[in-house]
Amino acid sequence: MEVLFIVALGAAVAGFVQGLSGFAFGMVAMSFWAWVLEPRLAAALTVFGALAGQLVSALSVRRGMRLGLLWPFVLGGLAGIPLGVALLPRLDVDAFKAVLGTLLVLWCPAMLLARHLPRITAGGRWADGAVGLAGGVMGGIGGFTGVLPTLWCTLRGFDKDTQRAVIQNFNLSMLLVTMGTYLARGIVTRDMLPMFAVVAPAMLVPSLLGARLYIGISEARFRQVVLGLLTASGIALLAASVPRLAARLG
């Protein structure tokens, strides 16, 4: 019962955060689940919960959808996932997490404190596609699909509805591919279904509440939420990777 409670609590909190921001389900849920679930089950539940939450958000928040802006990210991401999977056996994942975490911890608070964010206008759709590709590679490596595209949309100066629409639908596309891969490879098993049945109802109402709260927040507050979550992602990555790197070096 204690495990079921923690799984449900993690799903509820992560669902609310994703409903509000459009991303970050995995980061929040894993902060609860990593302590009580074995990694394979935790990964499957994270993909399932994030996918369910994105579907709820896509139905409840439909503002800012621009297919012409979205497709370069999605095509890049779809091309990047198999590259990330291929790189995974050859990559020092802990070192990769440490570098990415350091980037987020240094850059995002600076952006949060800045009065005027730098705005990138160069590159057009090719640059958007390259960022989507990088997001797909990072998703294949360790499930970090939305981190770089979210940061990029902030630097592009997209308004909150456009940014959310891009990230929400980009992540939805990547999660559908990931879940399909999990099912095809037998990573999702029948024994996991009871846990899926705990996660789905636990995150549904909080996701809707988060989405409702999103509708009422200002552009500035949404930027603060996004950059705050990216900073928290960086801290979580450093917390997971630096002790392992230190142990190996010592």
Entry summary:
This protein has 250 residues and is an all-alpha fold. It has helices at 2-21, 25-33, 39-60, 67-87, 93-113, 124-142, 147-156, 160-184, 193-216, 219-249.
Radius of gyration: 17 Å
Structural class: mainly alpha
Bulk shape: globular
Largest sheet: none
Helical stretch tally = 10
Average residue-wise pLDDT: 84
Low-confidence stretches: none
Q: What is the H/E string?
A: HHHHHHHHHH
End-to-end CA span: 39 Å
Helix percent band: over 70%
What is the total tally of β strands? 0
Q: What does it look like?
A:
By secondary structure, the chain is mainly alpha-helical. Helices cover 81% and strands 0% of the residues. Helix 2 runs antiparallel to helix 3 and helix 3 crosses helix 8. The chain is globular and about 50 Å long. The relative contact order is 0.20.
